[in-house]
Specification:
By secondary structure, this protein is an alpha/beta fold. The chain has four domains: 1-43; 46-102, Nucleic acid-binding proteins (OB fold (Dihydrolipoamide Acetyltransferase, E2P), Beta Barrel); 108-288, Rossmann fold (3-Layer(aba) Sandwich), CATH 3.40.50; 294-374, Orthogonal Bundle (Helicase, Ruva Protein, domain 3), CATH 1.10.8. The protein has 13 helices and eleven strands. The strands form two sheets. The protein has a six-stranded mixed sheet with strand order 6-8-9-10-7-11. Helix 5 (198-212) links the parallel strand 8 and strand 9 (216-221). Helix 5 packs parallel to helix 7. The protein starts with a helix and ends with a helix.
């Protein structure tokens, strides 16, 4: 009996020891985790700075508020060149390490970069506009030697202007596709930043990125947001827009005419643009993209309806009813006609569907139309 009682006691003791060791390990991990968190709270955050210049073993860094300082470059950091980004201590600006993963182009957050698959066949009408864009943008990018031989310099860029939805963006994508260029699209208002100097830096980054991705087409939609007529006295926001605009002009002037980068500006308000952007050597080729004629409406309609199933329709009459609509609105007519057919459980589109769709796109008060049509 004595041995059995002793063994039970020993087993209980061993079990208790194992449990205590397990709990102790968990507590150690918890203490270690809390210590790491406490250390992180005590550690000052590092600041990201840009290297502006390198002078022997010292570098000039630019802090986020715009000030520049001369600091020592420690051997542990390695070689730095202007344009690099580094982590520095906030108190004494000692360089801790190089920031290798940071993109030099802050503008990448605001742009769309793509290789478009839009061809000239996807555009209905606009024959004269297509011809002019081919001469000004496509030919210099595809055959620059022709301009060198003849001794003339092609325009650096063009300005597309006209009513909304007339195909300006489509034209820019088509020329980028025909030249196998990178298409970089940005809205002008995205270049206007609330902090001093940020807009100008975005413009600089935009064109630097365009050079790195050349051949490229830079498409600036709503360019009037940064290139409208300047005023003598304005708010700080207006002065920042002017700084951004001046940087934009400087970047255009810095281009060589035969660089593999072309600029396409786009606006619905040519009347408010600053004349500085339109002078020779900048966006001096103005191409109006008007509302389509009846014949062009027919071509645009055929492009957007090529995969649709129609009952017998009077195409001339349909296109005449669409007079005054833009290309985007003609596409919308095709979509709406398809929905009218779906609501009637048909896969064939009738002429009445198209006429209803034209009325819906034409009418200004859509709610009033819908209440009459379905109410």
């Amino acid at each position: 009996m004595g041995n059995e009682s002793y063994e039970k006691e020993m087993y209980s003791y061993v079990s208790s020891m194992n449990q205590l060791e397990s709990e102790n390990n968990i507590l150690k991990q918890t203490v270690s985790q809390l210590k790491n968190e406490l250390d992180s709270f005590k550690t000052n955050p590092l600041m990201v700075c840009e290297v502006k210049d390198v002078i022997d073993k010292e570098v000039i860094i630019k802090v986020p508020n715009g000030n520049s300082f001369l600091v020592t470059n420690p051997e542990s950091v390695g070689t730095l060149i202007p344009g690099d980004y580094v982590f520095v201590e906030q108190r004494n600006l000692n360089i801790v390490k190089k920031h290798t993963s940071l993109s030099n182009f802050d503008v990448e957050k605001f742009v769309i970069v793509e290789k478009p698959d839009v061809s000239w066949e996807h555009i209905g009408g606009l024959k004269s506009q297509i011809q002019e864009i081919k001469e000004v943008i496509e030919l210099p990018l595809n055959q620059p030697e022709l301009f060198e031989k003849i001794g003339i310099q092609p325009p650096k860029g063009i300005l597309l202007h006209g009513e909304p939805g007339t195909g300006k963006t489509l034209l820019a994508k088509a020329v980028a596709s025909s030249t196998n260029s990178t298409f970089i699209e940005i809205v002008g208002s995205e270049l206007v930043q609330k902090f001093i100097g940020e807009g100008a830096k975005l413009v600089k980054d935009l064109f630097e990125m365009a050079r790195n991705k050349a051949p490229s087409v830079v498409f600036i939609d709503e360019i009037d947001a940064i290139a409208s007529q300047r005023v003598e006295i304005g708010t700080s926001g207006e002065r920042e827009v002017q700084r951004t605009f001046m940087q934009f002009l400087a970047e255009i002037d810095g281009f060589k005419n035969l660089d593999n980068v072309k600029i396409i500006g786009c606006t619905n308000r040519k009347d408010i643009l600053d004349t500085a952007i339109l002078r020779p050597g900048r966006l001096d080729r103005l191409i109006e993209v008007p509302l389509p004629s009846v014949e062009e409406i027919k071509e645009i309609f055929k492009v957007h309806s090529s995969k649709m199933n129609f009952e017998k329709i009077n195409l001339d009459e349909i296109c005449k009813n669409m007079e005054g609509l833009s290309g985007a609105e003609i596409k919308s007519v095709c979509t709406e006609a398809g929905y009218f057919a779906l609501r009637n459980k048909r896969h064939i589109i009738k002429e009445e569907d198209l006429l209803k769709a034209i009325s819906k796109v034409n009418v200004k008060d859509k709610e009033s139309f819908d209440s009459k049509m379905y109410g």
